[in-house]
Design a protein that fits this description.
The chain is mainly alpha-helical and 227 residues long. The chain is built from eight helices and four strands. Helix 3 packs antiparallel against helix 4 and helix 3 runs antiparallel to helix 8. The longest helix is centred in the last third of the chain and has 20 residues.
Length: 227
């Protein structure tokens, strides 16, 4: 980016009538009308099967629940003092929802993204990410991206009575039941990696996704939403 382009971008950022964000795919920067963007975000949140409006923000109560859970682990000698400090978040903030425009889709819908950075569950989420990362890519059904998929089917030959189809699942993550997600992660390999202390890590897994779900579903609250 040239100096002139950089200065132009800084001027655009000062314009309160627009939103500058990346697109959902393609490594593209987009400049969006703020009113249009806000309407699109509200369309996402109007899905009452996924979101519900709350009278108050659950940030403080969720923080207390998380800290109580971590204190119990420490007091029962299941984690060290250092680990308890690492898992806790002080001065927690409400998770921030934003949307990335799907330029390749009709009417340009937004893909909702919820940032949990510095939220009450951030420490647990980081721990859970550390626990799950070594398991990524171990399944024979894992595909990294579309190029990987194209490479994997290079030698596949469709018969005359066969067709290949592609399914686009709408709002996949918010429609996976917590109990099913927990069982899939645990029995899919996590229990083998942490055989030294399986119950502790299973407890962290269960609490992490439970607390996160409560907070995510609370983002419809006008008191807690930062969009």
């Amino acid at each position: 980016m040239t100096k002139k382009e950089h200065l132009a971008l800084q001027q655009l950022k000062k314009d309160p009538s627009i939103i500058i964000t990346e697109a959902d795919k393609g490594n593209i920067t987009t400049v969006l009308d703020k009113e249009w963007y806000d309407n699109k975000v509200n369309q996402v949140l109007d899905d009452e099967e996924t979101y519900k409006r709350l009278k108050t923000s659950p940030t403080a109560s969720t923080t207390n629940d998380v800290n109580k859970f971590i204190n119990n682990l420490f007091e029962s000698n299941k984690i060290t003092k250092e680990a308890s400090f690492r898992l806790k978040i002080t001065d927690a903030t409400t998770p921030r929802l934003y949307g990335l425009p799907k330029l390749h889709k009709e009417n340009i819908p937004l893909r909702p993204i919820v940032s949990f950075t510095d939220s009450p569950t951030y420490g647990l989420a980081k721990e859970l990410s550390f626990l799950l990362k070594p398991l990524i890519g171990k399944s024979k059904y894992h595909i990294r991206n579309s190029s990987d998929f194209a490479s994997s089917i290079t030698h596949e030959i469709l018969q005359t009575d066969e067709i290949m189809v592609s399914f686009d699942v709408v709002s996949l993550f918010t429609k996976v039941p917590i109990s099913s997600g927990h069982r899939l992660i645990w029995w899919g390999g996590m229990r083998y990696r942490f055989a030294m202390n399986p119950m502790l890590h299973r407890t962290i897994l269960r609490k992490s996704i439970t607390f996160a779900n409560v907070h995510l579903r609370g983002n419809k609250s006008k008191l807690g939403l930062e969009a």
